[in-house]
Amino acid sequence: MREILFQRVRTQYTDRNKTYSLRDSEIHTLAEVGKFRVVAARDLVEFAYSGNRSRMENDVENLVRQGLIKQTTIADPEHNPTQVVTLTKEGHKLLSRGKILPSSQATYHGLKKSKEAFHDADLYRLYHKVSDQIESRGGRVLRVQLDYEMKRELYARLSRGSRDKSRNSETVRKEIAERYHLKVVSGKIPIPDVRIEYANENENEIHRRDLELATEHYRPRGLSQKARAGFQIYARHGETDRLRRIRDDQELSAAILGF
Predict the structure, then answer these.
(1) Do residues 147 and 193 touch, judged by C-beta distance below 8 A?
(2) Partners of 164 in beta bridges
(3) Which tens digits make up the pLDDT trace of 47-69?
(4) What is the H or E stretch that residue 133 is in?
(5) How confident is the model at residue 1 (pLDDT cuts 50, 70, 90)?
(6) DSSP letter, residue 209
(7) CB under 8 Å to 112, separation ≥6 — which residues?
(8) What is the pTM of this model?
(9) In the chain, how many H helices and how many E strands?
(10) How far is the CA of 56 from the CAs of 59, 73, 118, in angstroms?
(11) Strand, helix or coil at 235?
(12) Residue 99, H or E segment
């Protein structure tokens, strides 16, 4: 588990005509939230603050006061309220222009679809489960890609490729899939919920872990496509049994992992 140093010293960050006073831990929180769009407050406490809720609340209060993040409440599938945090437009601008993250790392602000917010928030927890495994074996995470980013790039290339009437559409689709280290399954290119790119110690090669967070609403065909695409499939503990039954009915070899 990662731990950030809680410091009282603040650094001045200027973005255009605005100046912000931030601790290193607050910058780290901006980066964590920006990479995943929406993060549950309880998960931020656990993974970014090593369980220290008071430190997290102090940092979030300061970030809210300076207009960089927003707190809101969403409902889980059982309609229980869950507090989450997202970047504001100002927070996103500061993160994007402040050279805080590598230029290859996409960041986001605000809730995209309220119905998907709980699923999206769980991706942060899933990421830490898998990234901790990677790092425990000597790996170093380089970049996180959400499906938003991959879909935008992939669909743009598919659209351009479809306009080239001189080439077979299936061949174009396969080439584009390979470019993004994906597979064509039943004529489609399944995209994972989140991809982790990492490098192992003393290696120049980039490795990838494609993760799918399956839910109880997954239909057999959809689960089959994700499994055949080679994604690592995870599910909340209360939903693994149903998904495993679907897997067995479909005669899939993929594991359904709980988290």
Answers:
(1) yes
(2) none
(3) 999 999 999 999 999 999 999 99
(4) helix 117-136
(5) very low
(6) E
(7) 37, 120, 148
(8) 0.89
(9) 9, 10
(10) 5, 17, 20
(11) strand
(12) none
